Amino acid sequence: MKAGRKPAGQKDLARSGQATIQEQTVPSAVSQSMTPDSARARREDSDSPDADPIPPGRKPARTPQEDDRREPGGARRPFLWNLLGSRPAKAILRQPAFPLALQVAALAGIVAVTINGWGIGLTESTDDLMTLRKTNLTTLFVWGFWWPAMIAVALLAGRLWCSVCPMELVNRLADALARRIGWPRTKMTGWLKAGWLIMALYVVLQLLVAGFSIHRMPHYTSNLLIVLFGLALGAGLVFREPRSFCKGLCPAGALLSVYGRYTPLQLDIRDPGVCESCRSKDCVAQKNRYRFDKRSCPSLLQPFNRQQSDGCVLCFQCAKVCPYGNLGFGLVRREASSRRHRLLRPFEAAFVLIATGFVAHEVAAEVKGLDETFHAVPSALQGLAPLIDFAWWEAFWFLLLLPLALWILVAGASRLLARRTPWKTLLLAAATGAAPVVAVAHFAKAAAKVSAWLGFLPLVVTDPAGLETLQRLSTHTLQAPSPLVGLPLIGWIMLFWILLLSRQGWFWSRQAVPDSLTAARTGLVTVTVFFGTLLLSWPWS
Fold first, then answer.
1. Beta 327-332 vs 265-269: how paired, if at all?
2. 240: which of 43, 47, 297, 304 lies 20 to 30 Å off by Cα?
3. pLDDT (average), residues 504-528
4. Taking the CA of residue 494 as centre, how many other CA atoms within 13 Å lie in the half-sphere pointing to its CB?
5. How far is it between the farthest Cα atoms of the chain?
6. H or E segment at 80?
7. What is the dihedral of CA 368, 369, 373, 379, to 10 degrees?
8. Each residue of 502-511: pLDDT tens digit?
9. 434 contact partners, CB below 8 Å, separation of at least 6
10. Is the pTM of this model over 0.90?
């Protein structure tokens, strides 16, 4: 035997010891998905987004690219298609200004439209405001493009919209300022941490839309944007939690959390074995939390243990800081943990219940006869109490009475079919089953609005205030732009999508709520019939 060479038995013992140490450092969610060859690792510098040298003392991990070349019969790759694996995406990911530059640009745009809408619409009549909301840049941008685009992106790409949200940037700057000056702050606890303030703010927003028509008046829309900036700033100064605005005060938080869970485009790990053999865990390390770039997860999540709708806002910092390039974003397999369907949380279920009434009101408004039928109840209520304005009775109807009546019916039917199940469990399961259909119905209204309002975009470029355009339209010296796509076509497309997603939801319910399957499917079938009937009126309008 040559000097310095260990006997084979000692080599096996050393390897066994190494494997034992590695297994002790692996989170359970990762260790359960290990492949037999996960202990073998080596890194190719050219394949990592950062291509940093391997730090001294760190065991090289097998790269995802090596996993991609695995022999047939091995574990399947998590990604069917990975956007971050392309050269352009890697180049963008290396830039310290990504996604900060997008947030700064969005912030500048929001400030500009806030200034543009200030003081406009205060003296116009109700009929003029119906036109001004399309001819003014502020209302057109916020209600005609920003809000519908947020719904569309959530359905197609999860919370990717949050990557460019300027409110997160304002909240993060306030948090950094408070930490630097030692500002005393408190923790988010109880109902605030559970998301109920998000739900309350969403309801308040809908009440402001119904009662004060803030979506039609540019000045009120500007005030809303200022309030949102104030909430983001104040949350960073008051609460210690990172992204406190996103977690507890964003009015769109429940919408994004619910609608963003059905897309197959997810951020996830490419190979569990790489995370298993990584000792530094840079994506969750405390030392990286407050860096300018390549931070550990600012939302305090574990990127190697993603769950459906877990609060990830797709800032891609985990992908930037990972030394092995093991984070991807793209089309993942349905068995991935990030796509495993779960029961809605209580505040998310409450959003679905209330959104059912609000979305029904919006969908019905596209057809005159259906809209008149829909408003029969608030008209009758105003006749009983004429001192209360019709707008408040309308809000009372679609935010409370209609959802309450619909979901009492669903819960009652579920209770008859599944006795001894608590009412709370029935409602959570029913909302979980109904959520994807409600999301598509909401997107149907968003698509119809964008189609009808998009033609006004060239007009607001030349007249951002919209007052001259309003006058020209009122005197008929300018013809109003036609919708880009007809309502009947949008109706057929959305009806097909609802039926398709309803079929998928039938199987998703088994995974999300196996113990309350009857309630989940009752909710799913009820809203499918309800919104399917409403959308069926669009082609005949």
1. antiparallel
2. 304
3. 93
4. 32
5. 103
6. strand 79-82
7. 50
8. 999 999 999 9
9. 352, 356, 410, 523, 524, 526, 527
10. no
